[in-house]
């Protein structure tokens, strides 16, 4: 997976995140709100995983190593990082 494909995936997820947040304002039913909230949480986690992978690739490249050595970490690991 290239940096460009990861960046494209991030852009698609961000667009979906924005759409979900906008829809949240318009959703009338409780079921729709719950569905969108669950999907939003999934998108946020996937974004964190993608950003982590992109940062790994950049760090490896900066250190003179192959960015192909980077791998997507599991969501539990990524979600426990301190900001």
Describe this structure in words.
- The protein has 83 residues and is mainly alpha-helical.
- It has helices spanning 3-26, 30-62, 75-79.
- Helix 1 runs antiparallel to helix 2.
- The longest helix is centred in the middle third of the chain and has 33 residues, at 30-62.
- It is elongated and about 55 Å long.
- The two termini are 26 Å apart.
**Rounded to an integer, what's the Rg over CA atoms?**
15 Å
Number of domains: 1
How many strand segments? 0
Determine the strand fraction and express it as a percent band.
under 5%
The profile of the biggest β sheet is: none
Residue windows where pLDDT falls under 50 for at least 5 positions? none
Distance between the termini: 26 Å
Helix content: over 70%
Average pLDDT metric: 91
Q: Main attributes?
A:
mainly alpha; elongated; 75% helix; 83 residues
How are the SSEs ordered, and which strands pair?
Elements (H helix, E strand, L loop, with lengths): L2 H24 L3 H33 L12 H5 L4
Helix pairs in contact: 1-2
Provide a quick synopsis of the model:
Helix content is 75%, strand content 0%.
């Amino acid at each position: 997976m290239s940096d460009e494909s990861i960046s494209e995936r991030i852009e698609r997820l961000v667009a979906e995140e924005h759409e979900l947040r906008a829809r949240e304002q318009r959703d009338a039913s409780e079921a729709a709100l719950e569905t969108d909230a669950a999907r939003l949480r999934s998108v946020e986690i996937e974004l964190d995983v993608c950003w982590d992978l992109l940062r790994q690739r950049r760090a490896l490249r900066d250190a003179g190593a192959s960015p192909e050595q980077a791998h997507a970490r599991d969501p539990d690991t990524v979600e426990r990082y301190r900001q």
